[in-house]
Protein backbone atom coordinates (compact mmCIF):
# COMPACT_ATOMS: atom_id res chain seq x y z
CA UNK A 1 0.00 0.00 0.00
CA UNK A 2 1.52 3.40 -0.91
CA UNK A 3 1.81 5.60 2.20
CA UNK A 4 1.21 9.33 2.45
CA UNK A 5 3.67 11.62 4.17
CA UNK A 6 1.88 11.54 7.53
CA UNK A 7 1.54 7.79 7.35
CA UNK A 8 -2.17 8.08 8.05
CA UNK A 9 -3.21 6.00 5.05
CA UNK A 10 -5.84 3.44 5.96
CA UNK A 11 -6.18 0.09 4.32
CA UNK A 12 -9.42 0.38 2.32
CA UNK A 13 -12.47 -1.21 3.87
CA UNK A 14 -15.60 -2.06 1.96
CA UNK A 15 -18.07 0.77 1.49
CA UNK A 16 -21.64 -0.23 2.24
CA UNK A 17 -23.62 2.60 0.66
CA UNK A 18 -25.85 -0.03 -0.87
CA UNK A 19 -26.28 -3.77 -0.71
CA UNK A 20 -23.75 -5.49 -2.94
CA UNK A 21 -25.29 -8.94 -2.70
CA UNK A 22 -27.34 -9.57 -5.81
CA UNK A 23 -30.84 -10.69 -4.80
CA UNK A 24 -31.53 -14.38 -5.29
CA UNK A 25 -34.76 -15.93 -6.56
CA UNK A 26 -36.72 -14.71 -9.58
CA UNK A 27 -35.72 -11.14 -10.42
CA UNK A 28 -38.40 -8.45 -10.46
CA UNK A 29 -37.59 -5.93 -13.15
CA UNK A 30 -40.21 -3.50 -14.36
CA UNK A 31 -40.21 -2.20 -17.92
CA UNK A 32 -40.39 1.59 -17.87
CA UNK A 33 -40.04 3.13 -21.34
CA UNK A 34 -38.28 3.11 -24.72
CA UNK A 35 -36.85 5.67 -27.10
CA UNK A 36 -34.57 5.92 -30.12
CA UNK A 37 -30.82 6.16 -29.45
CA UNK A 38 -28.81 7.37 -32.43
CA UNK A 39 -25.15 6.37 -31.95
CA UNK A 40 -22.03 6.49 -34.10
CA UNK A 41 -22.69 2.82 -34.96
CA UNK A 42 -26.43 2.73 -35.65
CA UNK A 43 -29.73 4.06 -34.34
CA UNK A 44 -30.74 1.64 -31.60
CA UNK A 45 -33.94 1.35 -29.61
CA UNK A 46 -33.15 2.03 -25.95
CA UNK A 47 -35.36 0.28 -23.38
CA UNK A 48 -35.31 1.25 -19.69
CA UNK A 49 -36.02 -1.13 -16.79
CA UNK A 50 -36.19 -0.69 -13.01
CA UNK A 51 -35.17 -3.26 -10.40
CA UNK A 52 -36.99 -2.26 -7.23
CA UNK A 53 -35.00 -4.57 -4.93
CA UNK A 54 -31.75 -2.71 -5.62
CA UNK A 55 -33.05 0.60 -6.99
CA UNK A 56 -30.97 -0.01 -10.11
CA UNK A 57 -31.86 1.19 -13.60
CA UNK A 58 -30.90 -1.33 -16.27
CA UNK A 59 -30.92 -0.72 -20.02
CA UNK A 60 -31.32 -2.74 -23.19
CA UNK A 61 -30.25 -1.57 -26.62
CA UNK A 62 -31.86 -3.38 -29.53
CA UNK A 63 -31.42 -3.16 -33.26
CA UNK A 64 -33.71 -4.72 -35.84
CA UNK A 65 -36.47 -7.25 -35.24
CA UNK A 66 -35.26 -9.20 -32.18
CA UNK A 67 -38.66 -10.76 -31.51
CA UNK A 68 -38.82 -12.97 -34.63
CA UNK A 69 -37.79 -16.14 -32.77
CA UNK A 70 -34.39 -16.45 -34.47
CA UNK A 71 -31.20 -16.40 -32.29
CA UNK A 72 -30.20 -12.82 -31.54
CA UNK A 73 -26.61 -11.53 -31.44
CA UNK A 74 -26.32 -10.53 -27.77
CA UNK A 75 -24.02 -8.91 -25.26
CA UNK A 76 -24.58 -8.86 -21.48
CA UNK A 77 -22.42 -5.90 -20.51
CA UNK A 78 -21.67 -5.25 -16.85
CA UNK A 79 -21.37 -1.55 -16.08
CA UNK A 80 -17.82 -0.22 -15.81
CA UNK A 81 -17.94 3.56 -15.47
CA UNK A 82 -14.17 3.90 -15.64
CA UNK A 83 -13.85 1.77 -18.75
CA UNK A 84 -17.13 2.55 -20.54
CA UNK A 85 -17.17 6.32 -19.98
CA UNK A 86 -13.70 7.41 -18.85
CA UNK A 87 -11.52 5.51 -21.35
CA UNK A 88 -9.73 3.52 -18.63
CA UNK A 89 -7.06 1.16 -19.89
CA UNK A 90 -7.13 -0.90 -16.67
CA UNK A 91 -9.69 -3.28 -18.16
CA UNK A 92 -11.13 -4.29 -21.52
CA UNK A 93 -14.71 -3.08 -20.87
CA UNK A 94 -14.79 0.10 -22.98
CA UNK A 95 -13.36 -1.64 -26.04
CA UNK A 96 -15.71 -4.61 -25.54
CA UNK A 97 -18.72 -2.29 -25.37
CA UNK A 98 -17.65 -0.52 -28.55
CA UNK A 99 -16.89 -3.78 -30.39
CA UNK A 100 -20.20 -5.34 -29.35
CA UNK A 101 -22.17 -2.32 -30.58
CA UNK A 102 -20.19 -2.35 -33.84
CA UNK A 103 -20.88 -6.06 -34.38
CA UNK A 104 -24.60 -5.59 -33.74
CA UNK A 105 -24.66 -2.63 -36.14
CA UNK A 106 -22.86 -4.68 -38.80
CA UNK A 107 -25.33 -7.55 -38.41
CA UNK A 108 -28.24 -5.08 -38.40
CA UNK A 109 -29.86 -6.99 -35.54
CA UNK A 110 -29.00 -7.66 -31.93
CA UNK A 111 -29.34 -6.78 -28.28
CA UNK A 112 -27.03 -5.33 -25.66
CA UNK A 113 -28.14 -5.51 -22.03
CA UNK A 114 -26.36 -2.80 -20.05
CA UNK A 115 -26.45 -4.23 -16.53
CA UNK A 116 -25.72 -2.00 -13.56
CA UNK A 117 -23.31 -4.48 -11.99
CA UNK A 118 -20.42 -2.05 -11.54
CA UNK A 119 -17.23 -3.63 -10.24
CA UNK A 120 -18.49 -7.21 -10.76
CA UNK A 121 -21.30 -6.28 -8.39
CA UNK A 122 -19.36 -4.52 -5.60
CA UNK A 123 -20.17 -1.00 -6.79
CA UNK A 124 -18.00 1.87 -7.99
CA UNK A 125 -16.68 2.99 -4.60
CA UNK A 126 -15.54 -0.50 -3.68
CA UNK A 127 -14.03 -0.96 -7.15
CA UNK A 128 -11.88 2.12 -6.53
CA UNK A 129 -10.80 0.54 -3.21
CA UNK A 130 -10.01 -2.64 -5.14
CA UNK A 131 -7.99 -0.70 -7.72
CA UNK A 132 -6.03 0.92 -4.90
CA UNK A 133 -5.19 -2.51 -3.50
CA UNK A 134 -4.14 -3.57 -7.01
CA UNK A 135 -1.90 -0.50 -7.27
CA UNK A 136 -0.21 -1.90 -4.16
CA UNK A 137 0.30 -5.38 -5.60
CA UNK A 138 -2.91 -7.42 -5.20
CA UNK A 139 -4.54 -8.96 -8.24
CA UNK A 140 -8.21 -8.34 -9.05
CA UNK A 141 -9.40 -11.44 -7.17
CA UNK A 142 -7.21 -10.86 -4.10
CA UNK A 143 -8.38 -7.25 -3.94
CA UNK A 144 -12.06 -8.25 -3.87
CA UNK A 145 -11.35 -10.83 -1.19
CA UNK A 146 -9.35 -8.36 0.93
CA UNK A 147 -12.46 -6.16 0.97
CA UNK A 148 -14.60 -9.09 2.13
CA UNK A 149 -16.26 -9.84 -1.21
CA UNK A 150 -16.42 -12.88 -3.42
CA UNK A 151 -14.23 -12.56 -6.53
CA UNK A 152 -17.39 -12.02 -8.55
CA UNK A 153 -20.63 -10.90 -6.84
CA UNK A 154 -22.77 -10.93 -9.99
CA UNK A 155 -25.68 -13.09 -10.93
CA UNK A 156 -27.62 -12.69 -14.14
CA UNK A 157 -31.22 -13.26 -13.03
CA UNK A 158 -32.27 -9.75 -14.05
CA UNK A 159 -31.58 -10.70 -17.68
CA UNK A 160 -34.58 -13.02 -17.80
CA UNK A 161 -37.40 -10.47 -17.38
CA UNK A 162 -35.53 -8.07 -19.68
CA UNK A 163 -35.14 -10.69 -22.43
CA UNK A 164 -38.71 -11.90 -21.92
CA UNK A 165 -39.99 -8.35 -22.34
CA UNK A 166 -38.05 -8.13 -25.62
CA UNK A 167 -39.38 -11.59 -26.67
CA UNK A 168 -35.86 -13.00 -26.99
CA UNK A 169 -35.48 -16.68 -26.14
CA UNK A 170 -32.25 -17.62 -27.90
CA UNK A 171 -28.98 -15.75 -28.32
CA UNK A 172 -25.58 -15.79 -29.99
CA UNK A 173 -23.57 -14.60 -27.00
CA UNK A 174 -20.58 -12.27 -27.29
CA UNK A 175 -18.45 -12.93 -24.19
CA UNK A 176 -15.27 -14.55 -22.90
CA UNK A 177 -16.96 -15.46 -19.61
CA UNK A 178 -18.40 -19.01 -19.62
CA UNK A 179 -20.45 -18.20 -16.49
CA UNK A 180 -22.63 -15.83 -18.50
CA UNK A 181 -23.61 -18.55 -20.98
CA UNK A 182 -24.21 -21.03 -18.14
CA UNK A 183 -26.37 -18.51 -16.29
CA UNK A 184 -28.50 -17.82 -19.37
CA UNK A 185 -28.93 -21.53 -20.01
CA UNK A 186 -30.01 -22.01 -16.36
CA UNK A 187 -32.58 -19.27 -16.88
CA UNK A 188 -34.01 -21.09 -19.89
CA UNK A 189 -32.45 -18.88 -22.58
CA UNK A 190 -30.89 -20.92 -25.37
CA UNK A 191 -27.28 -20.02 -26.20
CA UNK A 192 -26.80 -21.15 -29.80
CA UNK A 193 -23.34 -19.67 -30.31
CA UNK A 194 -20.43 -18.42 -28.18
CA UNK A 195 -18.66 -15.51 -29.83
CA UNK A 196 -15.38 -14.40 -28.17
CA UNK A 197 -14.94 -10.68 -27.59
CA UNK A 198 -11.19 -10.45 -27.37
CA UNK A 199 -9.61 -7.03 -27.12
CA UNK A 200 -5.95 -6.23 -27.74
CA UNK A 201 -4.16 -6.07 -24.41
CA UNK A 202 -2.13 -3.08 -23.24
CA UNK A 203 0.51 -2.72 -20.48
CA UNK A 204 -2.17 -1.51 -18.03
CA UNK A 205 -4.64 -4.37 -18.42
CA UNK A 206 -2.29 -7.26 -19.14
CA UNK A 207 -2.23 -8.54 -15.56
CA UNK A 208 -5.99 -8.08 -15.18
CA UNK A 209 -6.64 -10.15 -18.31
CA UNK A 210 -4.20 -12.86 -17.17
CA UNK A 211 -5.93 -13.05 -13.78
CA UNK A 212 -9.35 -13.27 -15.46
CA UNK A 213 -8.07 -16.24 -17.45
CA UNK A 214 -6.26 -18.02 -14.60
CA UNK A 215 -8.62 -17.34 -11.67
CA UNK A 216 -12.02 -16.39 -13.10
CA UNK A 217 -12.22 -18.89 -15.96
CA UNK A 218 -12.41 -16.44 -18.87
CA UNK A 219 -11.42 -17.85 -22.24
CA UNK A 220 -9.09 -15.77 -24.36
N1 LIG B 1 -14.19 -5.67 -8.47
C1 LIG B 1 -13.58 -5.37 -9.62
N2 LIG B 1 -14.33 -5.21 -10.71
C2 LIG B 1 -13.70 -4.93 -11.86
C3 LIG B 1 -12.30 -4.79 -11.95
N3 LIG B 1 -11.99 -4.48 -13.24
C4 LIG B 1 -13.17 -4.46 -13.91
N4 LIG B 1 -14.19 -4.72 -13.08
C5 LIG B 1 -15.62 -4.85 -13.37
O1 LIG B 1 -15.79 -6.08 -14.02
C6 LIG B 1 -16.97 -6.05 -14.79
C7 LIG B 1 -16.64 -6.63 -16.14
O2 LIG B 1 -16.27 -7.95 -15.91
P1 LIG B 1 -15.11 -8.68 -16.65
O3 LIG B 1 -14.63 -9.77 -15.73
O4 LIG B 1 -14.09 -7.69 -17.18
O5 LIG B 1 -15.77 -9.33 -17.90
P2 LIG B 1 -17.05 -10.24 -17.90
O6 LIG B 1 -18.23 -9.32 -17.95
O7 LIG B 1 -17.03 -11.25 -16.79
O8 LIG B 1 -16.81 -11.08 -19.22
P3 LIG B 1 -16.90 -10.64 -20.72
O9 LIG B 1 -18.30 -10.92 -21.17
O10 LIG B 1 -15.91 -11.45 -21.45
O11 LIG B 1 -16.59 -9.16 -20.78
C8 LIG B 1 -17.43 -4.61 -14.82
O12 LIG B 1 -18.51 -4.49 -13.89
C9 LIG B 1 -16.22 -3.84 -14.29
O13 LIG B 1 -16.59 -2.69 -13.58
C10 LIG B 1 -11.53 -4.98 -10.77
O14 LIG B 1 -10.31 -4.93 -10.77
N5 LIG B 1 -12.21 -5.26 -9.63
ZN1 LIG C 1 -13.84 -2.27 -16.88
TrEMBL record:
* Active site (UniProt): 152 (proton acceptor), 154 (nucleophile)
Free-text remark on how the cofactor is bound: Binds 1 zinc ion per subunit.
Query: Which GO molecular function entries does the Swiss-Prot or TrEMBL record give?
Result: 3,4-dihydroxy-2-butanone-4-phosphate synthase activity; GTP binding; GTP cyclohydrolase II activity; zinc ion binding
Principal EC category: hydrolase
GO BP, one example? Answer: riboflavin biosynthetic process
Enumerate the catalysed reactions: GTP + 4 H2O = 2,5-diamino-6-hydroxy-4-(5-phosphoribosylamino)-pyrimidine + formate + 2 phosphate + 3 H(+)
Q: Which domain of life is it from?
A: Bacteria
| The enzyme's E.C. designation | 3.5.4.25
Q: In which pathway does it act?
A: Cofactor biosynthesis; riboflavin biosynthesis; 5-amino-6-(D-ribitylamino)uracil from GTP: step 1/4
Provide GO CC annotations from the record.
cytosol
Instruction: Provide this UniProt record's keywords sorted from A to Z.
Output: GTP-binding, Hydrolase, Metal-binding, Nucleotide-binding, Riboflavin biosynthesis, Zinc
Recorded hits in CDD domains, A to Z, give: GTP_cyclohydro2
Q: Which residues form the GTP cyclohydrolase II domain?
A: 33-196
Swiss-Prot/TrEMBL cofactor(s): Zn(2+)
Q: Which Pfam families is this protein grouped with?
A: GTP_cyclohydro2 (PF00925)
Residues annotated for GTP binding in this entry: 75-79, 96, 118-120, 140, 175, 180
Q: Give a yes or no for keyword GTP-binding in this entry.
A: yes
Q: Which protein family is it in?
A: Belongs to the GTP cyclohydrolase II family.
Q: What does this protein do?
A: Catalyzes the conversion of GTP to 2,5-diamino-6-ribosylamino-4(3H)-pyrimidinone 5'-phosphate (DARP), formate and pyrophosphate.
What is the protein name for this chain?
GTP cyclohydrolase-2
| Gene from which this protein is expressed | ribA
